[in-house]
Design brief:
Layout: H1 2-18, H2 25-41, H3 48-65, H4 82-96, H5 105-125, E1 131-133, E2 136-137, H6 138-151, H7 160-176, H8 181-196
Antiparallel strand pairs: 1-2
Helix pairs in contact: 1-2, 1-3, 2-5, 3-4, 4-8, 5-6, 6-7, 7-8
Length: 198
Amino acid sequence: MQLLIMIAIAVWIIALELATPTLSDFAARKLCHAGCGAGMMLLDPTQLAARVFVWCVAASSIAMTWGLSPLPPFRFSRPRDIGVTAYLTLVSGWFALQLPPTILAPVFFADPAGAVFGKFCSRRLGRWNPAWFQQKTVCGSLAVFGLTLASVGVGYPCSTARRLAVSAAAALAEAVGGDFDNLALAAVVLLGWAWSSP
């Protein structure tokens, strides 16, 4: 089963890279973020093969992003992309520590949801979706809040009050985190997890 998940993640990345005529770079980036995250949530970090797979994907992708590989960078990444590097470093470290990847569900889903919903609502609602911090919009941050609320506590018990607090903190962290928004969001999720531990 783990091997099939690894193959599915690899095929997903390649398919998004090759879907140039039908899929924008923005959509491909967000689908890669969420899709790979969903796949990694299904991997068992206690298995060496799963850890090695994640490390290989991360190392090769970071090398491509920073021009250290004979392969060109992904079409949906920027040269020396801090966001991609931070995301992959976070997941690699998480697997190295053999922590349950389900705890990172808000990072995998809330962050891309914020960008997608924020951009969609800006196009549809215009001034009714104002930016409240730099380029972060109200609807985008509400999406981060909502997806965090729905996904926090997936891997551990968490009261409703704590889920609300973690979700509000996650929306704020994602907004002010800049290129390091994934790390900021992960820090909030980790604190929420530690807070919920007995």
